[in-house]
Amino acid sequence: MAQEALLAQMRRGTLQYCVLALLADEERYGFDLVRALAEVDGMVTGEGTIYPLLSRLRRDRLVETTWQESPTGPPRRYYRLTEAGQASLEGFLREWGRFRDAVDHFVERKAS
Amino acid sequence: MNSTADRAVNTYLERLDADLADLPRARRREIVDEIAEHIAEARAELPTESEAETRSLLERLGDPADIAADARQRFGVVPARPGWMETAALVLLLFGGFVFGVGWIIGLVLLWSSAVWTPWEKLLGTLVVPGGLAGSFFLFSLWAVSADSGHGTGPCLDTNTNRTIECGSGGGSNVLPLVGIGLLFVAPLITTAYLALRMRRRAELVRA
């Protein structure tokens, strides 16, 4: 149970950077982002929780949005990385690499 | 459009909106709008408009309570915990009017300063019925006085013919006022019960 809670917290903490990474190369709208995240097993449990995250990222000015016409239906809100968002992502990538290597260093000996 | 599937979507969005009540208004709007948009996009891709598929789509989105809990954490909103202030608000709204009306005003202040109810629910609590049960009694006495002066106090003068005639006692129209009076007293009770239910739901959300 405690392990499950830890995994949930880890997922929660890193999800924001997965979203920023998905936006690094292209603008996306909400449904498209969710679909990309849901394709990878184990990343998202409830798809709906992406939207509070997007709202928070927007408030922190890590992403910005523009309305764009959609070929079908009403206009969509597209999310795009800001400079601050880009910097935040790069900072995380450096730390994440170090952290992942450190954890792997200790646990992989046991796994093999 | 499939109406049962539509209803499932509407219920889901209404619950989400209510569960997000303690978030800043703009954030709440944004999240609900985006999720409504998500549902519309996802439904457009469904091969059929079946209710089962719509429900599984909503299931993938997750329980509105979970989304709201996540949103509260993301925005550092301390969940509104119903306490004695909320209970006092409901009691005062219902009975406070009997204390020179002041009690009801205090209840109103407590109602609007609480984060437990949505603006819509607060409006309902304010308008149905102003003054609470005392307001109902007041409106009832107004009606009773006007009804009293209207008929049954004896013969009255017909100004056209200058003859005394029997004033209409309106035997047939007595049923409608009775229903109205009933509603007048039941409405504040129902409103209070509804607000209490919403309060309990919020308490459950906090515990979840």
Written description of the protein model:
The complex is a heterodimer of chains A (112) and B (208). Chain A has 112 residues and is of the alpha+beta class. Helices cover 62% and strands 12% of the residues of chain A. Chain A is built from four helices and three strands. A three-stranded antiparallel beta sheet of chain A has the order 1-3-2. In chain A, a hairpin with a 7-residue loop joins β2 and β3. The longest helix of chain A is centred in the last third of the chain and has 29 residues. Chain B is mainly α and 208 residues long. Chain B contains nine helices and two strands, in the order ααααααααββα. In chain B, strands 1-2 form a two-stranded antiparallel sheet. In chain B, a hairpin with a 4-residue loop joins β1 and β2. At the A-B interface, α2 and α3 of A face α2 and α4 of B.
What is the strand and helix layout of this fold?
The complex is a heterodimer of chains A (112) and B (208).
Chain A: H1 2-22, E1 28-29, H2 30-39, H3 50-59, E2 63-68, E3 76-81, H4 83-111
Antiparallel strand pairs in A: 1-3, 2-3
Chain B: H1 3-19, H2 25-45, H3 51-61, H4 64-74, H5 84-95, H6 102-113, H7 119-127, H8 132-150, E1 156-158, E2 163-165, H9 175-207
Antiparallel strand pairs in B: 1-2
Helix pairs in contact in B: 1-2, 1-3, 1-4, 5-6, 5-9, 8-9
